[in-house]
Write a structure and sequence with these properties.
Blueprint: E1 3-5, E2 12-14, E3 16-19, H1 32-44, E4 49-51, H2 60-68, E5 77-82, H3 97-111, E6 116-121, H4 129-146, E7 149-156, H5 159-169, E8 173-177, H6 187-198, E9 201-205, H7 226-241, H8 246-255, E10 262-266, H9 270-278, H10 286-296
Helix pairs in contact: 1-2, 1-9, 3-4, 4-5, 5-6, 7-10
The structure holds nicotinamide-adenine-dinucleotide.
Nicotinamide-adenine-dinucleotide binds next to strand 8, strand 10 and helix 9.
Protein backbone atom coordinates (compact mmCIF):
# COMPACT_ATOMS: atom_id res chain seq x y z
CA UNK A 1 0.00 0.00 0.00
CA UNK A 2 1.09 3.57 -0.62
CA UNK A 3 0.18 6.36 1.81
CA UNK A 4 -0.22 10.07 1.18
CA UNK A 5 -0.67 13.16 3.32
CA UNK A 6 -4.26 14.33 3.60
CA UNK A 7 -3.65 18.04 3.12
CA UNK A 8 -2.17 19.62 6.24
CA UNK A 9 -3.93 17.30 8.69
CA UNK A 10 -0.85 15.22 9.43
CA UNK A 11 -2.91 12.13 8.57
CA UNK A 12 -1.28 9.66 6.18
CA UNK A 13 -4.03 7.91 4.25
CA UNK A 14 -3.84 4.84 2.03
CA UNK A 15 -4.19 5.70 -1.68
CA UNK A 16 -7.05 3.20 -1.84
CA UNK A 17 -9.75 4.09 0.67
CA UNK A 18 -12.72 1.95 1.77
CA UNK A 19 -16.11 3.42 0.85
CA UNK A 20 -18.68 1.93 3.19
CA UNK A 21 -21.92 2.97 1.47
CA UNK A 22 -22.42 -0.61 0.16
CA UNK A 23 -22.50 -1.73 3.82
CA UNK A 24 -25.78 0.18 4.00
CA UNK A 25 -27.20 -1.87 1.10
CA UNK A 26 -27.00 1.15 -1.20
CA UNK A 27 -26.03 -1.08 -4.13
CA UNK A 28 -28.35 -3.96 -3.22
CA UNK A 29 -28.50 -6.14 -0.11
CA UNK A 30 -25.04 -6.86 1.27
CA UNK A 31 -24.13 -10.07 3.05
CA UNK A 32 -23.29 -8.72 6.52
CA UNK A 33 -20.71 -11.40 7.30
CA UNK A 34 -18.98 -10.99 3.96
CA UNK A 35 -18.98 -7.22 4.51
CA UNK A 36 -17.24 -7.71 7.87
CA UNK A 37 -14.67 -9.94 6.19
CA UNK A 38 -14.17 -7.28 3.50
CA UNK A 39 -13.48 -4.64 6.17
CA UNK A 40 -10.98 -6.94 7.92
CA UNK A 41 -9.32 -7.86 4.65
CA UNK A 42 -8.98 -4.17 3.79
CA UNK A 43 -7.30 -3.48 7.13
CA UNK A 44 -4.95 -6.45 6.54
CA UNK A 45 -4.08 -5.07 3.10
CA UNK A 46 -3.08 -1.72 4.59
CA UNK A 47 -6.22 0.26 3.75
CA UNK A 48 -6.46 2.73 6.62
CA UNK A 49 -9.05 5.23 5.41
CA UNK A 50 -12.73 4.35 5.87
CA UNK A 51 -15.59 6.61 4.83
CA UNK A 52 -19.22 6.25 5.88
CA UNK A 53 -22.30 8.37 6.63
CA UNK A 54 -25.50 8.09 8.68
CA UNK A 55 -27.26 8.42 5.32
CA UNK A 56 -25.95 5.12 3.94
CA UNK A 57 -28.67 2.58 4.65
CA UNK A 58 -30.20 5.19 7.01
CA UNK A 59 -27.62 4.35 9.73
CA UNK A 60 -27.13 0.68 8.74
CA UNK A 61 -23.69 1.26 7.20
CA UNK A 62 -22.37 3.06 10.29
CA UNK A 63 -23.72 0.31 12.54
CA UNK A 64 -22.14 -2.46 10.45
CA UNK A 65 -18.84 -0.60 10.07
CA UNK A 66 -18.69 0.12 13.80
CA UNK A 67 -19.16 -3.58 14.56
CA UNK A 68 -16.61 -4.67 11.96
CA UNK A 69 -14.00 -2.23 13.26
CA UNK A 70 -14.23 -3.39 16.88
CA UNK A 71 -10.68 -4.24 17.89
CA UNK A 72 -9.27 -2.47 14.80
CA UNK A 73 -10.17 1.15 15.50
CA UNK A 74 -6.57 2.16 16.26
CA UNK A 75 -5.46 1.00 12.78
CA UNK A 76 -7.84 3.20 10.82
CA UNK A 77 -8.66 6.80 10.02
CA UNK A 78 -12.41 7.07 10.28
CA UNK A 79 -14.46 9.56 8.28
CA UNK A 80 -18.18 10.06 8.58
CA UNK A 81 -20.65 12.80 7.73
CA UNK A 82 -23.62 14.80 8.93
CA UNK A 83 -26.42 16.85 7.39
CA UNK A 84 -27.87 14.22 5.03
CA UNK A 85 -30.25 11.63 6.50
CA UNK A 86 -32.68 10.68 3.76
CA UNK A 87 -33.05 10.74 -0.02
CA UNK A 88 -35.85 13.31 -0.15
CA UNK A 89 -34.27 16.61 -1.20
CA UNK A 90 -36.82 18.57 0.86
CA UNK A 91 -36.88 16.61 4.12
CA UNK A 92 -33.72 14.50 4.08
CA UNK A 93 -31.28 17.24 5.04
CA UNK A 94 -30.58 19.24 8.17
CA UNK A 95 -27.45 21.36 8.30
CA UNK A 96 -28.41 23.24 11.48
CA UNK A 97 -25.82 23.52 14.25
CA UNK A 98 -28.14 21.66 16.60
CA UNK A 99 -28.56 18.64 14.28
CA UNK A 100 -24.85 18.51 13.41
CA UNK A 101 -23.93 18.50 17.10
CA UNK A 102 -26.47 15.77 17.86
CA UNK A 103 -25.40 13.81 14.78
CA UNK A 104 -21.81 13.40 15.91
CA UNK A 105 -22.96 11.84 19.18
CA UNK A 106 -25.14 9.36 17.30
CA UNK A 107 -22.29 8.48 14.91
CA UNK A 108 -19.81 8.01 17.78
CA UNK A 109 -22.21 5.53 19.38
CA UNK A 110 -22.85 3.58 16.17
CA UNK A 111 -19.18 3.58 15.24
CA UNK A 112 -18.19 2.55 18.79
CA UNK A 113 -15.52 5.22 19.10
CA UNK A 114 -14.64 8.39 21.04
CA UNK A 115 -13.47 10.47 18.08
CA UNK A 116 -14.27 10.90 14.42
CA UNK A 117 -11.06 11.60 12.49
CA UNK A 118 -12.76 13.44 9.63
CA UNK A 119 -16.27 14.82 10.05
CA UNK A 120 -17.82 16.03 6.80
CA UNK A 121 -20.88 18.06 5.89
CA UNK A 122 -22.62 15.63 3.52
CA UNK A 123 -23.69 16.85 0.07
CA UNK A 124 -23.64 20.54 0.83
CA UNK A 125 -25.32 21.41 -2.49
CA UNK A 126 -28.62 20.38 -0.86
CA UNK A 127 -28.18 23.05 1.82
CA UNK A 128 -28.24 26.83 1.74
CA UNK A 129 -24.75 28.12 1.13
CA UNK A 130 -25.15 30.87 3.73
CA UNK A 131 -26.14 28.33 6.39
CA UNK A 132 -23.30 25.96 5.52
CA UNK A 133 -20.80 28.82 5.84
CA UNK A 134 -22.25 30.65 8.85
CA UNK A 135 -23.73 27.82 10.89
CA UNK A 136 -22.77 24.28 9.83
CA UNK A 137 -19.03 24.68 9.56
CA UNK A 138 -18.71 26.84 12.70
CA UNK A 139 -20.60 24.09 14.59
CA UNK A 140 -18.17 21.53 13.22
CA UNK A 141 -15.23 23.71 14.28
CA UNK A 142 -16.61 23.73 17.84
CA UNK A 143 -16.74 19.94 17.76
CA UNK A 144 -13.11 19.99 16.70
CA UNK A 145 -12.22 22.16 19.71
CA UNK A 146 -14.11 19.78 22.00
CA UNK A 147 -12.12 16.81 20.66
CA UNK A 148 -15.16 14.87 19.40
CA UNK A 149 -13.79 15.20 15.88
CA UNK A 150 -10.26 15.82 14.64
CA UNK A 151 -10.76 17.41 11.22
CA UNK A 152 -13.51 19.06 9.20
CA UNK A 153 -14.51 18.33 5.62
CA UNK A 154 -17.22 18.95 3.04
CA UNK A 155 -18.59 16.63 0.37
CA UNK A 156 -20.74 17.00 -2.71
CA UNK A 157 -21.19 16.54 -6.44
CA UNK A 158 -21.19 20.05 -7.98
CA UNK A 159 -17.65 21.39 -7.94
CA UNK A 160 -18.12 25.14 -7.74
CA UNK A 161 -19.95 25.14 -4.42
CA UNK A 162 -17.28 22.94 -2.81
CA UNK A 163 -14.67 25.48 -3.85
CA UNK A 164 -16.74 28.52 -2.85
CA UNK A 165 -17.51 27.18 0.62
CA UNK A 166 -13.90 26.11 1.24
CA UNK A 167 -12.76 29.54 0.06
CA UNK A 168 -15.13 31.25 2.48
CA UNK A 169 -14.50 29.23 5.64
CA UNK A 170 -11.54 26.93 5.20
CA UNK A 171 -11.79 23.16 5.59
CA UNK A 172 -9.26 20.38 6.14
CA UNK A 173 -10.52 18.13 3.32
CA UNK A 174 -12.88 18.08 0.36
CA UNK A 175 -14.55 14.91 -0.94
CA UNK A 176 -15.71 15.05 -4.54
CA UNK A 177 -17.40 12.08 -6.21
CA UNK A 178 -17.82 10.93 -9.84
CA UNK A 179 -15.76 13.93 -10.99
CA UNK A 180 -12.44 12.21 -11.63
CA UNK A 181 -12.58 8.90 -13.39
CA UNK A 182 -12.55 7.50 -16.93
CA UNK A 183 -15.87 9.23 -17.70
CA UNK A 184 -15.41 12.62 -16.06
CA UNK A 185 -12.24 14.56 -15.31
CA UNK A 186 -13.77 17.93 -14.45
CA UNK A 187 -12.46 17.81 -10.86
CA UNK A 188 -9.16 18.92 -12.34
CA UNK A 189 -10.70 22.07 -13.83
CA UNK A 190 -12.02 23.36 -10.51
CA UNK A 191 -10.89 21.59 -7.36
CA UNK A 192 -7.43 20.21 -8.02
CA UNK A 193 -5.62 23.54 -8.57
CA UNK A 194 -7.57 25.07 -5.68
CA UNK A 195 -6.70 22.41 -3.09
CA UNK A 196 -3.08 22.44 -4.20
CA UNK A 197 -2.86 26.17 -3.56
CA UNK A 198 -4.56 25.90 -0.16
CA UNK A 199 -3.05 22.65 1.10
CA UNK A 200 -6.50 21.07 1.50
CA UNK A 201 -6.76 17.26 1.45
CA UNK A 202 -8.47 15.96 -1.69
CA UNK A 203 -10.56 12.78 -1.59
CA UNK A 204 -11.73 11.35 -4.90
CA UNK A 205 -14.76 9.10 -4.46
CA UNK A 206 -16.49 6.75 -6.90
CA UNK A 207 -13.68 5.82 -9.32
CA UNK A 208 -16.14 3.32 -10.86
CA UNK A 209 -18.70 6.11 -11.34
CA UNK A 210 -20.96 4.37 -8.81
CA UNK A 211 -20.79 1.04 -10.68
CA UNK A 212 -21.23 2.42 -14.20
CA UNK A 213 -17.66 1.33 -14.92
CA UNK A 214 -18.18 -2.33 -14.04
CA UNK A 215 -19.45 -5.45 -15.80
CA UNK A 216 -22.61 -5.31 -13.67
CA UNK A 217 -23.44 -1.78 -14.68
CA UNK A 218 -25.20 0.98 -12.73
CA UNK A 219 -27.88 0.51 -10.08
CA UNK A 220 -31.39 1.54 -11.06
CA UNK A 221 -31.20 4.83 -9.07
CA UNK A 222 -28.09 6.05 -10.87
CA UNK A 223 -28.39 9.73 -11.87
CA UNK A 224 -26.15 9.66 -14.97
CA UNK A 225 -27.86 10.58 -18.26
CA UNK A 226 -28.69 7.56 -20.46
CA UNK A 227 -26.15 8.42 -23.15
CA UNK A 228 -23.35 8.34 -20.56
CA UNK A 229 -24.40 4.87 -19.39
CA UNK A 230 -24.69 3.66 -23.00
CA UNK A 231 -21.19 4.86 -23.84
CA UNK A 232 -19.86 3.18 -20.68
CA UNK A 233 -21.53 -0.10 -21.72
CA UNK A 234 -19.79 0.15 -25.10
CA UNK A 235 -16.46 0.80 -23.34
CA UNK A 236 -17.11 -2.18 -21.04
CA UNK A 237 -17.60 -4.45 -24.07
CA UNK A 238 -14.47 -3.01 -25.70
CA UNK A 239 -12.42 -3.94 -22.60
CA UNK A 240 -14.07 -7.35 -22.29
CA UNK A 241 -13.21 -8.17 -25.91
CA UNK A 242 -9.59 -7.48 -25.00
CA UNK A 243 -9.72 -9.66 -21.89
CA UNK A 244 -9.87 -6.82 -19.36
CA UNK A 245 -12.50 -5.96 -16.76
CA UNK A 246 -13.27 -2.26 -17.12
CA UNK A 247 -13.34 -1.90 -13.30
CA UNK A 248 -9.63 -2.67 -13.24
CA UNK A 249 -8.82 -0.11 -15.90
CA UNK A 250 -10.99 2.46 -14.11
CA UNK A 251 -9.21 1.87 -10.80
CA UNK A 252 -5.79 2.08 -12.45
CA UNK A 253 -6.80 5.31 -14.15
CA UNK A 254 -8.10 6.96 -10.96
CA UNK A 255 -5.05 5.89 -8.96
CA UNK A 256 -2.74 7.70 -11.40
CA UNK A 257 -3.91 11.05 -10.01
CA UNK A 258 -1.05 12.54 -8.04
CA UNK A 259 -2.88 15.23 -6.05
CA UNK A 260 -5.65 12.99 -4.74
CA UNK A 261 -4.74 11.72 -1.27
CA UNK A 262 -7.10 8.76 -1.34
CA UNK A 263 -9.39 7.22 -3.96
CA UNK A 264 -12.51 5.96 -2.23
CA UNK A 265 -13.97 2.84 -3.80
CA UNK A 266 -17.09 1.30 -2.34
CA UNK A 267 -17.51 -2.38 -1.63
CA UNK A 268 -18.83 -5.01 0.74
CA UNK A 269 -16.92 -7.88 -0.87
CA UNK A 270 -13.51 -9.40 -0.16
CA UNK A 271 -12.81 -10.10 -3.84
CA UNK A 272 -13.30 -6.43 -4.74
CA UNK A 273 -10.92 -5.33 -1.99
CA UNK A 274 -8.34 -7.78 -3.32
CA UNK A 275 -8.67 -6.61 -6.91
CA UNK A 276 -8.77 -2.92 -6.08
CA UNK A 277 -5.67 -3.09 -3.89
CA UNK A 278 -3.79 -4.92 -6.65
CA UNK A 279 -4.38 -1.95 -8.96
CA UNK A 280 -2.09 0.24 -6.81
CA UNK A 281 0.93 -1.29 -8.54
CA UNK A 282 -0.51 -1.35 -12.07
CA UNK A 283 -0.61 1.44 -14.64
CA UNK A 284 -3.35 1.25 -17.29
CA UNK A 285 -2.43 -0.22 -20.67
CA UNK A 286 -2.02 2.99 -22.74
CA UNK A 287 -3.58 1.50 -25.89
CA UNK A 288 -6.60 0.14 -24.06
CA UNK A 289 -7.09 3.40 -22.19
CA UNK A 290 -6.85 5.39 -25.43
CA UNK A 291 -9.50 3.13 -26.99
CA UNK A 292 -11.84 3.60 -24.02
CA UNK A 293 -11.35 7.37 -23.92
CA UNK A 294 -12.16 7.52 -27.63
CA UNK A 295 -15.45 5.62 -27.10
CA UNK A 296 -16.55 7.85 -24.25
CA UNK A 297 -15.35 11.10 -25.85
CA UNK A 298 -18.85 12.26 -26.92
CA UNK A 299 -20.09 12.00 -23.31
CA UNK A 300 -16.92 12.91 -21.43
CA UNK A 301 -17.41 15.28 -18.46
CA UNK A 302 -21.20 15.29 -18.77
CA UNK A 303 -22.53 15.97 -15.29
CA UNK A 304 -26.04 15.77 -13.83
CA UNK A 305 -28.06 18.05 -11.60
CA UNK A 306 -27.70 17.63 -7.87
CA UNK A 307 -29.05 19.74 -5.05
CA UNK A 308 -30.55 23.21 -5.11
CA UNK A 309 -30.57 24.88 -8.50
CA UNK A 310 -28.59 27.85 -7.20
CA UNK A 311 -25.79 25.53 -6.05
CA UNK A 312 -25.53 23.50 -9.22
CA UNK A 313 -22.67 23.61 -11.68
CA UNK A 314 -23.75 25.70 -14.67
CA UNK A 315 -23.45 22.93 -17.26
CA UNK A 316 -25.36 20.14 -15.42
CA UNK A 317 -28.04 18.30 -17.45
CA UNK A 318 -31.19 16.34 -16.48
CA UNK A 319 -30.98 12.53 -16.02
CA UNK A 320 -32.80 11.45 -19.18
CA UNK A 321 -30.91 13.52 -21.74
P1 LIG B 1 -17.83 3.33 -6.66
O1 LIG B 1 -17.54 4.01 -7.93
O2 LIG B 1 -16.72 3.12 -5.70
O3 LIG B 1 -18.57 1.96 -6.99
C1 LIG B 1 -18.99 1.08 -5.99
C2 LIG B 1 -19.68 -0.14 -6.61
O4 LIG B 1 -18.72 -0.85 -7.41
C3 LIG B 1 -20.20 -1.13 -5.59
O5 LIG B 1 -21.41 -1.68 -6.07
C4 LIG B 1 -19.14 -2.22 -5.54
O6 LIG B 1 -19.67 -3.48 -5.22
C5 LIG B 1 -18.61 -2.20 -6.95
N1 LIG B 1 -17.17 -2.56 -7.04
C6 LIG B 1 -16.17 -2.17 -6.22
N2 LIG B 1 -15.00 -2.69 -6.63
C7 LIG B 1 -15.27 -3.44 -7.73
C8 LIG B 1 -14.48 -4.23 -8.60
N3 LIG B 1 -13.17 -4.36 -8.44
N4 LIG B 1 -15.11 -4.87 -9.63
C9 LIG B 1 -16.44 -4.74 -9.82
N5 LIG B 1 -17.23 -4.01 -9.04
C10 LIG B 1 -16.66 -3.36 -7.99
O7 LIG B 1 -19.01 4.17 -5.95
P2 LIG B 1 -19.34 4.54 -4.45
O8 LIG B 1 -19.35 3.34 -3.56
O9 LIG B 1 -20.56 5.38 -4.49
O10 LIG B 1 -18.15 5.49 -4.00
C11 LIG B 1 -17.13 5.09 -3.12
C12 LIG B 1 -17.33 5.65 -1.73
O11 LIG B 1 -17.12 7.06 -1.72
C13 LIG B 1 -18.74 5.46 -1.13
O12 LIG B 1 -18.92 4.17 -0.63
C14 LIG B 1 -18.74 6.55 -0.09
O13 LIG B 1 -18.01 6.13 1.06
C15 LIG B 1 -17.99 7.68 -0.80
N6 LIG B 1 -18.90 8.60 -1.50
C16 LIG B 1 -19.27 9.74 -0.88
C17 LIG B 1 -20.17 10.59 -1.48
C18 LIG B 1 -20.57 11.85 -0.77
O14 LIG B 1 -20.06 12.14 0.28
N7 LIG B 1 -21.48 12.60 -1.30
C19 LIG B 1 -20.71 10.29 -2.73
C20 LIG B 1 -20.30 9.13 -3.37
C21 LIG B 1 -19.38 8.29 -2.75
Amino acid sequence: MIYRALGKTGLEVSVVGFGASPLGDEFGAADAEEATRAVHHAVDQGINFFDVSPYYGRTLAETRLGQALEGHRDKVILATKAGRYDADPETGFDFSAERITQSVEESLTRLKTDTIDLFQAHDIEFGHKVQIINETLPAMRKLKQSGKIRFVGITGYPLEILKEVAEAVGVDAILSYCRFNVLDRSMDDVLTPFVQKRGIGLINASPLHMRVLTEKGPPEWHPAPKRVVQAARAATRYCRDRGVDIAELAMQFALMHEVVATTLVGTSKVRHVERNVKMVDDAPDPELLAGVLEIIKPVANICWRSGRRENDDPDAVPKQS
